[in-house]
Amino acid sequence: MSVPVPGGSIEDWLNELKLYQRNTLNGILLSNEPEKAAEIWITSQGSDIIVHFGGTHDTKPFWDRFRQEFRSFICDDNAYTEEKKALSAEGSITKTLLISVVSSAIGATIGYSATLLAPAVAILLCVVGKMTVNAYCKNG
Amino acid sequence: MDIFTQITLIVGRITQVGVNMLGTGFLVAADGRIVTVYHTVGHDDKNLVVLFPHIRRINDYQDLADTSCKPIPAQIAEVDPIKDICILKTDLAFKGPLPRIGSFDEISVGDEVGIFGYPHCVEGRRSLTFQKTIIGAKVLIDTSGVKTKHAVINTQARPGQSGSLVFSPVQNAIVGILVGAYAPAGGGISLGGINPRELHQTTHCISAHYVKEMI
Q1: Class of the B3-90 domain?
Q2: Whole-number Å distance between alpha carbons of B204 and B151
Q3: Residue among B139, B178, B132, B171 nearest B35 (CA)
Q4: CATH of domain B100-212
Q5: Is residue B71 within 8 Å of residue B19, measured between CB atoms?
């Protein structure tokens, strides 16, 4: 079961996000391509000239795992079937709904906060929407 | 100052052997929302908690041998990994006025500020500690193309203080959040778990006004 991804510009997709997310992402996008901006968003922990005084310094290779799961959601008919069924039951799939469902599903699978994933999901969905699902999946 | 005993909290994670204290956070809304820094919490809110206040007055003696605590479940509500700010949602409720959220725009270099946090909590020590210092500089820090307003405060900070609130008595407002110390990547050594490069008074705090658009 494939997921129809609405088209739209990067601005259209960012408009589905909260203002603070949009402001930060617009700054990153000034000097980075969309997919790189998504990677920066979910792998950053602030400035690299500041040493942290708390936390557990998680260094998991998070981006690759996230991108792999995103691709599974979009390209693998046998993955995330329950979520796709729920989406297909909707009259029309809005950008907001798609971002929310994909972020929650992937977050639950890889054990990361859906709130953190949502902006990166929005950017990758924009990339897919611009080239069609089939073209994105064939690109490997 | 007693209000800070009720709004400055330890952020931790429940493990098989108890609560692993990760850093400091502070109550920012009466409905239980708490501000901390993202690197304290990390990507996952599984088993995340804040600890209910353990003293009522700042002059109370804090029993360092008392390891009892009341964990309150917390979830990540908002996060900006570039600015390193995180909002947690809890079921805590607060009655009465909370300090206003201000900005480093409102204060000047040389102004006095107070810091409330839990230094060394990551090593198991629970002691709400007040520090007084001045704003040493205002700086812009570029992270992946995004410039954010920070202040350098002229005091040394230690692990556990990430997420501490920075309070301006002149503005009667929380003006910043302690993030860490200046230490460019790629250098330093560890002596008994301490990197001497971190032992200085160039402590960085991010302006609190970024929190306003997240709550």
Answers
A1: mainly beta
A2: 6
A3: B178
A4: 2.40.10.10
A5: yes
SS3 call for A55: coil
Distance between CA atoms of A26 and A32, rounded to whole angstroms?
Answer: 10
The mean pLDDT value of chain B amounts to 93
> pLDDT per residue over B142-156, tens digit each?
999 999 999 999 988
- Which residues of chain A are within 8 Å of residue B214 when distances are taken between CB atoms? 18, 20
CB-hemisphere CA count at 13 Å for B82?
A: 27
Tokens 């000034």 identify what position?
A30
Q: Is the pLDDT of residue A100 over 70?
A: yes
- A43 interaction partners in chain B (CB closer than 8 Å): 81
Alpha helix segments (H runs only) across B70-198: none
What residue of B is the nearest CA neighbor of A21? B80
The backbone torsions φ and ψ at residue B19, rounded to the nearest 5 degrees and listed phi first, read -95, 125
- The contacts of residue B177 (CB under 8 Å, 6+ apart) are B35, B36, B37, B85, B163, B164, B165, B166, B205, B206, B208, B211
Residue ranges, comma separated, of all CATH 2.40.10.10 domains in chain B are 3-90, 100-212
Between CA A115 and CA A94 the distance in angstroms is: 18
Neighbours of A137 (CB within 10 A): 15
Interface test with A, best of B43, B150, B158 (most A CBs within 10 A): B43
Region of B61 please: left (phi>0), alpha (psi -120 to 50) or beta: beta
pLDDT in tens, A43-69: 988 887 777 777 776 655 689 999 999
How many other C-beta atoms lie within 10 A of the C-beta of residue A19?
A: 10
Which of B10, B33, B39 would best serve as a mutation to test chain A binding (most A beta carbons within 10 A)?
Answer: B39
Q: Chain A: which residues have CB within 8 Å of chain B?
A: 18-21, 23-24, 27-28, 30-32, 40-58, 60, 62, 111-113, 115-116
Phi, psi of B50 (to 5 degrees): -120, 155
